[in-house]
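Quick one, probably user error.
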């Protein structure tokens, strides 16, 4: 049985349906809020990335210092990674001139490197084992890279394939459905499936966010980025108040869980 001390250090939420609902909403918020700051406020991708990385660093430090799981703090860090991921991916794709394919390739390598280093030092990349400050550091680095990669993938799917925002959302939604099917009906590693789903929820949120705030001429619904962001914040708060959010079990209790 997990000790009280171990439980108090486990600050990652249990992976439930409520977790994924909030995750998709948070990634959509990251797209609209990131675009609001970089585009609507005209700060540009580089300055916006610096701002959001600073917010992520502050929120992440508070999360790591916390002695127990706090849903609002945890999801504040997630939102910080999604907004930073949006502006960082846009900076790599557009300002650096490497394009969506180049940006996605660079970010994929960075994500794989972060997961490799995590596994090298800890022997696992399971979120059931995020129970020490060092592992939390690996966890949040991997999440930041996965969010940034997801943004680049979402933009590439929507802009370069001709599918548009609705088509891109359907593709990524179908991918998540396949991962869910694999989770319930195959013996594929739940840890691998978790990270695959975590990555794919980001481009799903990116395409939905673009669908909300892009102009009608570009296939969007032309909602204000600030209005869309405010509605998403309200939705996330309601979800956190109504849907159960609790710390996940330690790996000793559920070694196969993602």
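Nope, works fine. Designed sequence:
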């Amino acid at each position: 049985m997990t000790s009280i001390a171990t439980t108090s250090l486990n600050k990652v939420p249990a992976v439930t349906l409520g977790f994924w609902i909030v995750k998709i909403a948070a990634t959509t918020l990251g797209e609209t809020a990131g675009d609001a700051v970089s585009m609507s406020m005209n700060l540009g991708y580089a300055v916006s990335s610096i701002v959001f990385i600073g917010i992520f660093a502050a929120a992440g430090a508070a999360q790591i210092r916390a002695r127990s799981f706090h849903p609002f703090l945890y999801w504040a860090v997630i939102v910080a990674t999604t907004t930073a991921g949006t502006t960082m991916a846009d900076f790599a794709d557009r300002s650096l001139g490497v394009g969506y394919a180049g940006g996605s390739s660079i970010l994929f390598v960075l994500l794989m490197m972060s997961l490799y280093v995590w596994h090298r030092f800890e022997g696992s990349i399971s979120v059931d084992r995020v129970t020490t400050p060092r592992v939390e550091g690996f966890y949040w680095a991997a999440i930041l890279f996965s969010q940034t990669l997801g943004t680049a993938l979402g933009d590439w799917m929507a802009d370069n394939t001709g599918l548009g925002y609705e088509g891109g959302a359907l593709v990524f939604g179908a991918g998540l459905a396949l991962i869910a099917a694999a989770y319930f009906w195959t013996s594929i590693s739940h840890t691998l499936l978790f990270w695959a789903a975590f990555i794919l929820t980001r481009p799903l949120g990116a395409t939905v966010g673009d669908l909300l705030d892009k102009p009608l001429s570009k296939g969007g619904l032309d909602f204000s980025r600030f209005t869309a962001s405010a509605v998403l914040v309200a939705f996330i708060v309601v979800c956190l108040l109504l849907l159960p959010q609790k710390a996940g079990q330690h790996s000793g209790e559920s070694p196969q869980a993602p």
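Residues 1-8, 250-258 have pLDDT under 50 and may be disordered.
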